[in-house]
């Protein structure tokens, strides 16, 4: 079945450094790729998304890149701040039918002050 | 815009009882709602997809007779955990898709933490 792999599972960076989280998906029909930030005990918050007709998208300190051929997409956070510390999930979805998301396993990011 | 509420936020119940969780889209009509379960330090696992007025589609391994889903209107879906047992203790999160956000963005509710004693 469909699968999304996410790496690394934990990531510690110094404040001000960059963080990169990578995901690989298996379903070649996937065409929508959101990234969510989840703080402990709270709902996932959409931070950025990308569709398959675009290779890169940026929003201030956050960027996402997509390589459709390799079925890879990555989240880049620059100038990290302690408040960026959270669990980040990638997801892949097909926009045919029910828009079902397949989530990655999550990355726990710690930004050290 | 695109706010999803969930009630209750926390519930503690005795083993064998049933618990109902409500998910509402407050400012948009949700064509589809999803129910997820999240165990500690794990990812979100999709349980079922529900469309208004039709039967829910359950993921493999999810018992439809145990997790009853009713999508009564375009703004309300309910999940009932029947005969709950301690292993059902988890964080249950709903999400909704509507015309907001391009039609394929899921907006999540705040979650319900269920503890079964």
Mind sketching the topology for me?
The complex is a heterodimer of chains A (113) and B (117).
Chain A: E1 4-7, E2 10-14, E3 19-25, E4 32-38, E5 45-51, E6 56-59, E7 62-67, E8 72-77, E9 86-93, E10 101-103, E11 107-112
Parallel strand pairs in A: 2-11
Antiparallel strand pairs in A: 1-3, 3-8, 4-5, 4-9, 6-7, 7-8, 9-10, 9-11
Chain B: E1 4-7, E2 10-13, E3 19-25, E4 30-38, E5 45-51, E6 57-58, E7 67-73, E8 76-81, E9 90-98, E10 107-108, E11 112-116
Parallel strand pairs in B: 2-11
Antiparallel strand pairs in B: 1-3, 3-8, 4-5, 4-9, 5-6, 7-8, 9-10, 9-11
Structure description:
The complex is a heterodimer of chains A (113) and B (117). Chain A contains no helices and 11 strands. In chain A, the strands form 2 sheets. In chain A, strands 2, 4, 5, 9, 10 and 11 form a 6-stranded mixed beta sheet that branches. Chain A is an all-beta fold. Chain A is globular. The model of chain A has no long low-confidence stretch (mean pLDDT 93). With 117 residues, chain B is mainly beta. Chain B has strands spanning 4-7, 10-13, 19-25, 30-38, 45-51, 57-58, 67-73, 76-81, 90-98, 107-108, 112-116. In chain B, strands 2, 4, 5, 6, 9, 10 and 11 form a 7-stranded mixed beta sheet that branches. Chain B is globular. Chain B starts with a strand and ends with a strand. The chains are: A mainly beta (113), B mainly beta (117). The interface between A and B is medium-sized, with 22 and 23 residues.
Question: End-to-end span of chain B in angstroms?
Answer: 37 Å
User: Oligomer, anyone?
Assistant: heterodimer
Overall pLDDT metric of chain B: 91
Global mean pLDDT of chain A: 93
The main β sheet of chain B shows up as: 7 strands, mixed
Measured on Cα atoms, how large is the radius of gyration of chain B? 13 Å
What does the overall shape of chain B look like? globular
Beta strands of chain A, count: 11
Helix content of chain B: under 10%
Question: Major beta sheet of chain A, specifics?
Answer: 6 strands, mixed
Low-confidence parts of chain B, pLDDT < 50 over ≥5 residues? Answer: none
Largest interface: A-B, 22 and 23 residues
Report the radius of gyration of chain A as a whole number of Å: 14 Å
**Ends apart, CA distance between termini of chain A:** 41 Å
**SS class of chain A:** mainly beta
Computed structural class of chain B: mainly beta
Number of helices of chain B: 0
Instruction: Give the low-confidence spans of chain A.
Output: none
């Amino acid at each position: 079945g469909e699968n999304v792999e996410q790496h690394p599972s934990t990531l510690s960076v110094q404040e001000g450094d960059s963080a990169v989280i990578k995901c690989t998906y298996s379903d070649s029909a996937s065409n929508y790729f959101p990234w969510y930030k989840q703080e402990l005990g709270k709902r996932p918050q959409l931070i950025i998304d990308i569709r398959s007709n675009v290779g890169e998208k940026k929003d201030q300190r956050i960027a996402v890149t997509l390589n459709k051929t390799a079925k890879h997409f990555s989240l880049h956070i620059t100038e990290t701040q302690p408040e960026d510390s959270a669990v980040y999930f990638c997801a892949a979805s097909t926009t045919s039918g029910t828009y079902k998301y397949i989530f990655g396993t999550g990355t726990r990011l710690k930004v050290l002050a | 815009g695109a706010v999803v509420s969930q009630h209750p936020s926390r519930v503690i119940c005795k083993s064998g009882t049933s618990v109902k969780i409500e998910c509402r889209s407050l400012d948009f009509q949700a064509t589809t709602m999803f129910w997820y379960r999240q165990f500690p330090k794990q990812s979100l696992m999709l349980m079922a997809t529900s469309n208004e007025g039709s039967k829910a589609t359950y993921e493999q391994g999810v018992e439809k007779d145990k997790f009853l889903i009713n999508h009564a209107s375009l703004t309300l879906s309910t999940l009932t955990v029947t005969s709950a047992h301690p292993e059902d203790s988890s964080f249950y999160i709903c999400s909704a898709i509507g015309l907001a956000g391009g039609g394929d963005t899921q907006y999540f509710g705040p979650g319900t933490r269920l503890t079964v004693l």
